[in-house]
Amino acid sequence: xxxxxxxxxxSEAHLQLVLIPWPVMGHVQIVEFAKxxxxxxxxxxxxxxxxxxxxxxxxxxxxxxxxxxxADLLSTGPATCRLNFFHLPPTNPAPEWSSRTRGYFIxxxxxxxxxxxANFLQSRKAAVAGLVVDMLCTxxxxxxxxxxxxxxxxxxxxxSFLGAMLHCQTLHDxxxxxxxxxxxxxSEVLVPSFAKPVPPEVLSLVLVDKHLWLxxxxxxxxxxxxxxxxxxxxxIELEPHALNSFSVLDSAYGSKQVPPIYPVGPILNxxxxxxxxxxxxxxxxxxxDQPSCSVVLVCFGSQGSLNEDQVRELATGLEKxxxxxxxxxxxxxxxxxxASFPSEYTRYEDVLPExxxxxxAKTGKVVGWVPQLDVLSHPAVGxxxxxxxxxxxxxxxxxxxxxxxxxxxxxQQMNAFQLVRELGLAVEITLSYHERSENGTVVAAGExxxxxxxxxxxxxxxxxxxxxxxxxxxxxxVEGGSSYLSFKKLIDHMMTNISSNN
Length: 502
Known about the structure:
- The chain has helices at 2-13, 29-39, 65-76, 102-111, 114-123, 139-146, 159-175, 205-208, 210-224, 240-245, 280-288, 308-321, 356-359, 372-376, 390-399, 412-422, 445-455, 461-476, 482-501; strands at residues 14-20, 49-56, 83-87, 128-134, 151-155, 229-232, 261-263, 295-299, 324-328, 364-367, 381-386, 403-405, 426-428.
- It is α/β, with parallel strands linked by helices.
- The protein has two domains: 8-269 and 478-501, Glycogen Phosphorylase B (Rossmann fold); 280-475, 3-Layer(aba) Sandwich (Rossmann fold).
- The strands form two sheets. A seven-stranded parallel β-sheet has the order 3-2-1-4-5-6-7, sandwiched between helices. It has a six-stranded parallel β-sheet with strand order 10-9-8-11-12-13, sandwiched between helices.
- α12 links the parallel β8 and β9 (324-328).
- α5 runs parallel beside α6 (139-146) and α7 (159-175) packs across α9 (210-224).
- The longest helix has 20 residues, at 482-501.
- It is globular.
- The two termini are 22 Å apart.
- Belongs to the UDP-glycosyltransferase family.
- Its EC number is 2.4.1.-.
């Protein structure tokens, strides 16, 4: 009897969190968040220990080799007693999933895993203290609720976009407004989480495209309000207006209040490194031979790519700028394979202007996949032409490298607007470009040249602001910093929920 009592006490003292990431590279920061919890066990209640299990959903290689390879690296890395990875059983994609977009494919993949997640939680129910789900995996909140497990959302986009989603959800649910109409608004749109009115052309399509909004993102926004808390990969010093806006977001409509918000960033991807076809070492060695702050990195993330006409225009603008460059150039998937991610070119000569590689051989390097954080950390890099994915924004600020904005999809247009117009932390190439624009819009070489020259300008006001934000980002995560304190509040909140749930 004594042994049984001791075992029960030990079980109650040991807690387990389950984390569910969205299975693409741009959302892996939830794994870094898990590591952060493990390293800060001292914030737990006395006598409590915590382990974490990350449930992995693997994309088929024919959809995205980068993300699937990364999932393999995570699960085959050194195991620890506190952090474990568990591959959910694979499901067979229906042919219809591949016929539409990447987001549609992955959304259906997540839905197909609900029963497997329920079975996993049920098998560990006595030990599971909470569930943390990616911002696009919120269907799992219902699974957790049925089992009485508290849920939290890990939001990988900025606080400003969370505010925009909740604002549009309020407009839809409380005053019956068709938010798709905002796309054609005659004047700029007031969004509480943005300090300045937002031009209609930079509103994210996931908010104003009727099918994207009604089929998926409206439901995500509703689910956020069910959570015990929302963890955001941002920090107070970067987004003070957006973070302050949540306290008044719903007051005018009387709808359900926003759950507690925990800005705990910047959390950067410092996990297993995926190298390009010629290896990260070759890229970094090339950078070693370049002067300080002389190279502009051109990279559009794991999901970003340009069509061939735009690639040639970018090459022309790069060459005219006279800047040294490192260009991560990846092939856009065919339109009839919309669910596929970008792939690698076998011959860059087939898409670049004739003679471009020869003329720029001494000043530029064209590669495939790059270890982005390692590159941005290199002293040779002085500017970044970016799609403004939020992870890339946080990495650029952490490294003190200013961005020239070139958004492609998701919330990136709104991120670019916030960076340029509100925060003064980036220069503009474009704010409203869309990767698969229906009107065939091409950013001209002259605009690209101007943006690159501006972002590489030494001593500019933007560069000074970015340098200041670099220091603030790093101070936010050390003991006593704003994100450190927010993280402690989150752990306290989790511990309170756990106590009341037991």
